[in-house]
Design goal:
By secondary structure, the chain is an all-alpha fold. The protein has helices at about 1-15, 15-40, 40-60, 70-90, 100-105, 110-115, 115-125, 130-140, 150-155, 160-190. About 75% of the residues lie in helices and about 0% in strands.
Amino acid sequence: MEHELQQWLDEAMQGKEESFCRLVDHYQNGVYNLCYRMLGNRHEAEDAAQESFWRAYRNLHRYDPSRSFQTWLLSIASHYCIDQQRKRRMTLIAIDEPFEETFGSNSPTPEHVYSNNEQSSQMEELINTLKPTDRAALVLRYWHQMSEKEIADTLSLSVSAVKSRLFRARKELAEKMETRREEYELHERETYEPQKI
């Protein structure tokens, strides 16, 4: 497969559109997943993935063959998504929303709230509150298993800046998860505590 990918890339760089289309077919899931994790909306992720491939195609002459093509492609997608987030100043779900809006009026028991699916959903909401570049670093690290060096190349940062952003993002997420857990437990106590007459 590596040989085929290299052949398609070489041909695409020589102007063969069909070969670039094969590269799109091969990399589209990874690019779409990155865009979805960063934008949190399927329709916007599809648009962002298409725009990323279009930008890659137009700038193929700038691609440095000494770099990984996948890293270069994800770099284009990451920067595009960061720009989109900055433009719209995205606020998908505020952390301080009332619990009725977050969990619904018929709140489930704490055991159900902290099941794997619920935790995954809450984590996605919290990730959406991070600064765009911090979110990009986190997504590339944990969903694309990139090394700190690869993330640095993708986001045009130094390795130390990536380490710093990952540390800050993990710390911020841990603090927000703890705050949300405490708020939820308080809400549960107030809801189920017998009223004194």
